[in-house]
Amino acid sequence: MTNITLSIDDNVYKKMKKFSEVKWSEFVRKIISQRIEELDNLKQNAFADEGLLAQNWLSEEDNKAWRDL
User: Fold this and answer.
1) pLDDT tens digits for 29-68?
2) What does the alpha-carbon distance between residue 34 and residue 58 come to, in Å, rounded to a whole number?
3) What is the pTM (predicted TM-score) of this model?
4) Engineering a disulfide at 15: which of 6, 26, 55, 69 sits with its beta carbon 3.0 to 4.6 angstroms away?
5) Which residue in 40, 25, 34 sits closest to 59, CA to CA?
C-alpha cells in the first residue's frame, strides 16, 4: 500500500479530533475509491468531457458536513 500526505486547515483538524472514533484514513480511502469509480464510469461514456469531470462532485449535504467539521 502506498502512503500519501494531506494538508488540512488547522480548524478542520481540531474539529476532526472531536470525532476520534472516526477512522479518518479509512474514510479518505473510501472517498478516493468512490471518486475514481465515478470518473472511470464517466470516461466510459462517450458524452463525458473534461469540464464535466472537473465539476465539484460533492452533494449539498457533503458540503454542509465538511463545513461543520
Assistant:
1) 999 999 999 888 877 765 656 666 666 667 777 767 777 6
2) 11
3) 0.59
4) 69
5) 34
CB 6 within 8 A of CB 28: yes
C-alpha grid cell, residue 65: 458536513
CA distances, 8 to each of 19, 46, 48, 49, 60 (Å): 16, 36, 31, 29, 20
**Residue-by-residue DSSP string for 34-59:** HHHHHHHHHHHSTT--HHHHHS----
Number of residues assigned to the chain: 69
Question: What's the one-letter identity of residue 58?
Answer: L
